[in-house]
Design goal:
The protein is of the alpha/beta class. The chain is about 30% helix and about 25% strand. It has two domains: about 25-270, TIM Barrel (Alpha-Beta Barrel); about 275-385, Lyase, Ornithine Decarboxylase, Chain A, domain 1. The longest helix has 19 residues, at about 195-215. It is elongated and about 70 Å long. The structure holds pyridoxal-5'-phosphate.
């Protein structure tokens, strides 16, 4: 798919490496989220940490999504993109005072609170401004997301959230905190979850938590079940859209809402991963002792997921139709971990060939660094390139 509609002739003038965002893929993904979430009036807060490219945020805003932010910088980016503050949620285990103050000043929808000390600080800072902060307790449901251990977040051993065993203590403390108002509960069990039964397990746990509050005659206005839906990194051409229908259906079927309660979601990766590719050039094809290396001008400073999580990205040679060969596809950075793929099958590669690392729209551009004093990768959308 990418090969067919990729305007190769223009790229001679563009410096590699760069991110390329296919806005048609993004728009159909966003539309599908809207359609499937709309069936049950679920609220969607796009997780900005997956990608904050302004063109992407424009589409998110157009769809009317709210924002899930994990820093003051992201809150500011969401507001700058025109996303309504009353649809912003703010998560994170280490919210700094200035970030809490910024969120209070904008009167955001909700703080997703991850610890007792954080709750006390939010209360104190809100008191100073004579405001009331709406908070949801981020509870650790101890559900295994069956994903890479670096991206599971919902187990008791993880640093995130308040353990269920500590809920009693929090509920006892809350009435004394007069500048926070409890409006919800929040969960997020991990990322790149492709087995929908993990979300079913989450629903069971959420229902138990609901019972806990009902027994205390507390009906919380909202429940937030976080993000985490995975994408198909192996076959981005055949499966450009994640199974949003099946995903939202799990919650419709298995999560019991109380009358008037709203259900909130925080998808990040599933919205933006498949629209993005990192485009690089082959600098050298090097014959090693037992294998060939295709050395790219992109490295882990441009796309760190393979290095950080042993993540797989499909790699395509956009410039060659020659017979396939095997390569270790590596970057130029002075670390052995700067390897995108080992024994990767590519159409025969030559110096100057354009290479696409697919499904790179989430946790790609946002994680770029300048290590080795490299330039940050640029980014172009299909809209911009079409206008060239
Ligand atoms: C990272 C994160 C998300 C988004 O996760 P995805 O796997 O990208 O959908 C949502 N909520 C919270 C609290 C997060 O930390």
């Amino acid at each position: 798919m990418l090969k067919g509609n990729f305007p190769l002739d223009k790229f001679g003038q563009l410096q590699t490496p760069f991110y390329y965002y296919d806005m048609n893929v993004l728009r159909s993904t966003v539309d599908e989220v809207e359609r499937q979430a709309g069936k049950a009036d679920f609220r969607v807060h796009y997780a900005l940490k997956a990608n904050v490219n302004p063109a992407i945020l424009r589409e998110v805003r157009r769809a009317g999504f709210g924002a899930d932010c994990v820093s003051g910088g992201e809150i500011q980016a969401a507001i700058d993109a025109g996303i309504a503050p009353e649809s912003i949620v703010f998560a994170g285990v280490g919210k700094a005072d200035w970030e809490i103050n910024l969120a209070l000043d904008h009167n955001i929808f909700c703080f997703n609170v991850e610890s007792v000390p954080e709750l006390e600080v939010i209360d104190a800072l809100a008191a100073r401004k004579n405001r009331t902060a709406r908070v949801a307790l981020r509870l650790n449901p101890n559900v295994n997301a069956h994903t890479h251990h670096y991206i599971t977040t919902g187990l008791n051993e993880n640093k995130f959230g308040i353990n269920l065993a500590d809920l009693d203590a929090v509920m006892t403390l809350l009435p004394s905190l007069r500048h926070v108002q409890l409006v919800g509960v929040h969960f997020h069990i991990g990322s790149q979850i492709t087995d929908l039964t993990s979300f079913q397990s989450l629903c069971v746990r959420v229902n138990e938590v609901q019972d806990y509050f009902l027994a205390r005659r507390i009906v919380l206005p909202h429940v937030n079940v976080g993000g985490g839906l995975g994408v198909n990194y192996e076959h981005p051409n055949h499966f450009p859209l994640p199974d949003f229908e099946g995903y939202f259906q799990v919650f419709r079927k298995h999560l019991h809402l109380q009358p008037g309660q709203s259900l909130h979601f925080e998808p990040g990766r599933s919205v933006v991963a498949q629209c993005g590719s990192l485009i690089a050039r082959v600098l050298y094809v090097k014959q090693g002792a037992a294998k060939q290396f295709a050395i790219l001008d992109a490295g882990f400073t441009d796309l760190i997921r393979p290095t950080l999580y042993q993540a797989y990205h499909r790699i395509e040679n956009l410039s060659s139709d020659e017979e396939e060969r095997q390569y270790d596809v590596v970057g130029p950075i002075c670390e052995s971990s700067d390897t995108f793929a080992k024994a990767c099958t590519l159409n025969c590669a030559h110096r100057g060939d354009l290479i696409a690392l697919r499904s790179a729209g989430a946790y790609g551009e946002v994680m770029a660094s300048q290590y080795n004093l490299r330039r940050l990768p640029r980014a172009y959308t299909s809209d911009e390139l079409a206008a060239h």
